[in-house]
Write a structure and sequence with these properties.
Length: about 90
Amino acid sequence: MNISFRAPLTSHWQHIHADWWQDDQGNDIHRVEIDDEALYHCHFAGSPLPWNAVATSLDEAMAVFDTGSVELHEPIQEPTPERSPRNRRR
């Protein structure tokens, strides 16, 4: 018999839907099953990225936000023809 205990949600997390949690800051956690493995995609509120971190448990995903252990980076912009060093005037 396999019994699994899940830690209770901390007070600032809300279980919105079957596989979706959101905290009071607008951060999201989405549970995704890939090849029978559960992964938790973490999305920081206001980030332009689809997700900022991936965790293997709900507790680990919540810890990403609680500790602020992931640095946010602006997306890298590819040079456009106007910005390309080759096209700059000398």
